[in-house]
Amino acid sequence: MASTMALLVALVAMAGVLVSMPACAMVRHDYAAALSKSLLYFEAQRSGRLPPTQRVHWRGNSALNDGADHGVDLTGGYYDAGDNVKFGFPMAYTVTMLSWGVVEHGARMAAAGELRHALEAVRWGADYLVKAHAAAETLYVQVGDGNSDHMCWERPEDMDTPRNAYMVDASHPGSDVAAETAAALAAAAVMFSARAPGGDRQYALRLLTHAKQLFEFAKNHRGLYQNSVPSAGNFYHSSSDEDELLWAAVWLYIATGDEEYKAYIAGAGNLGGSGQPLGWDNKHVGAQALVAKARYIINH
Question: Is the pTM of this model over 0.85?
Fold first, then answer.
């Protein structure tokens, strides 16, 4: 899935060796090539109208009417692995992890000649998540139907399966996916706020506005999203919203320094988490790592 590939991008960058190892090494690992191919994957997963910079030339425009059933523009974003469905929950986690990778290791990505591609990958996902946040308390979390999609293997350019859009709102909450989307946009805002090549402070402020609204939406209307969108739960069943709310608060604090997010983190009753590894359904380890790097959040 795309979220797994995002984690791979971060891990490759964290390896810290983006050029060939010395000749005396017994094993040679070309991390630059691994990073390049990992990022190229996201271009192959693009939905919507493709840009002139598209490097995967065997892909074409697809799903150009997404959102039409609700009168909104939901074109763009990423397909999920081999599916033609756009699942908002793992897509948001993917954007968060890609952004984190750039925030921590953008210099190494630049040295490998891949920073621009990483920035483009984040922006492609973030642009879609902004579209999906159609109103302060409305978030579209899925386009397409997983069951019918899995029964019909076809190129996205040719697909004829249903493209229904599904949303969460105040009456049909999804605090887990709303908080994860808040985390994604806040993390992307941190990335684009950087005074570095590819920085875009105006864009970062726009992302941050959506992130703040989504966090408030998630806090004020608690409920797991599969109860509102059962078809999503058949494929990405959420176990809790506590980790996403904490994860979002940490990223929003990093992005803004606002005391309200610090207070939320300090008051979180489950900072320790469940001991599960970091993944699209469990963010406790990621939140712990970020808080540990900035432990004054809790102590001051």
Answer: yes
